[in-house]
């Protein structure tokens, strides 16, 4: 059964300044700490959850002594309840210190939420769709130290504890054939390398972002299985005409005793829009996508996008005639002077049409 995500975010915007917000003086240094809070109400509808309501406060801060080139730090909790007594809660932090020399990023998340599972592989049929509900605690922490201009090296830690509370009667997950169908505890640690010279964190107009990550999840760290995950994320932003052409190449790989929750997916609000989140999943995935983002009027801008990708069990199984394709367009509303946006996208694929509302660009 095909699902259409219908949502509405940004019903209203309430902004407040919780400390003096002084402009940068002529010497390019902020003399007084600046802290801004904004509160964004959230409302949406999906067939799985019915109506959902909540709020997302966002704090943007700059320390006294900040330079014009220093990146802002943000704190962003969010809380959503649905009419089916489900909950999504997140607390996210993103701190830049010592004139961008150190970067601390992380979040804590608790969800009681429905998901869909189609099996494993690049050719799973739509008829294989199974609905399941899980209670999940996610914790993620990453620290990066600048080694040279725009080059960073750091470590990342992930913890996931998931209890699957509801599955479909007679379904694949109920048979416990796939690893993770009875719930998981996964704990992973590994190095991360970053090169980032984007001119803006939230809506880049030019620059390059390259991130490479390797994580070992194992029983010694408290996990229930041993496996490895690798991620290569390459992005390029370039001004073309009145707008910005953004491109991303995303490669994810996994090996070992990999639970289905950690397999490489296709589909969702940020990659391969036009497919349900996790519509296809396997050990490895390759995704190529591009956006063209252009101004319209006032705080409103538009975007058109396209994507192609596939998942495989082995790297040698990748084939040019097995890629899935999707595309679409949407609108963005700029929330503040830092460049944060809320977006609405309509995406199409052979699976149908999907509507997405989200904070921030897809990449």
From TrEMBL:
Keywords: Membrane, Signal. InterPro entries: Bac_surfAg_D15. It is found in: Membrane. Residues 84-335 form the Bacterial surface antigen (D15) domain. It comes from the Bacteria. Its main location: membrane. It holds the Pfam family Omp85. The keyword Protease does not apply. Residues 1-19 form the signal peptide. This is BamA/TamA family outer membrane protein. It comes from Rufibacter roseus.
């Amino acid at each position: 059964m095909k699902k259409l995500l219908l949502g509405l975010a940004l019903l209203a915007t309430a902004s407040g300044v919780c400390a003096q917000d002084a402009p940068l003086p002529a010497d390019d240094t902020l003399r007084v700490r600046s802290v801004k809070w904004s509160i964004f109400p959230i409302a949406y509808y999906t067939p799985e959850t019915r109506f959902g309501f909540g709020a997302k406060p966002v704090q943007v801060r700059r320390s006294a002594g900040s330079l014009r080139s220093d990146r802002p730090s943000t704190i962003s909790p969010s809380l959503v309840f649905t009419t089916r007594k489900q909950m999504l809660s997140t607390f996210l932090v993103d701190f830049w210190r010592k004139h961008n020399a150190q970067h601390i990023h992380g979040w804590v998340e608790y969800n009681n939420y429905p998901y869909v599972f189609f099996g494993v592989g690049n050719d799973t049929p739509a008829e294989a769709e199974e609905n399941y509900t899980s209670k999940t605690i996610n914790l993620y922490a990453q620290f990066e130290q600048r080694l040279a201009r725009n080059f960073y090296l750091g470590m990342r830690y992930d913890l996931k504890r998931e209890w699957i509370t509801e599955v479909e009667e007679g379904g694949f997950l109920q048979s416990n054939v796939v690893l993770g169908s009875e719930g998981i505890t996964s704990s992973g640690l590994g190095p991360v390398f970053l090169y980032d010279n984007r001119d803006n964190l939230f809506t880049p107009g030019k620059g390059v972002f390259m991130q490479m990550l390797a994580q070992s999840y194992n029983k010694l760290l408290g996990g229930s299985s041993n496996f490895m995950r690798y991620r290569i994320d390459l992005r390029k932003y370039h001004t073309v005409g009145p707008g910005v052409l953004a491109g991303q190449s995303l490669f994810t790989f996994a090996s070992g005793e990999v639970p289905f929750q950690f397999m490489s997916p296709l589909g969702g609000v940020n990659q391969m829009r036009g497919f349900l989140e996790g519509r296809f999943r396997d050990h490895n995935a390759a995704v190529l996508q591009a956006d063209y983002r252009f101004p319209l009027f006032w705080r409103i801008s538009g975007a058109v996008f396209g994507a192609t990708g596939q998942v495989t069990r082995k790297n040698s199984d990748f084939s040019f005639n097995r890629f899935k394709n999707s595309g679409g367009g949407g609108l963005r509303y700029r929330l503040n002077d830092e460049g944060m946006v809320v977006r609405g996208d309509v995406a199409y694929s052979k699976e149908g049409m999907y509507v997405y509302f989200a904070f921030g660009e897809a990449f």
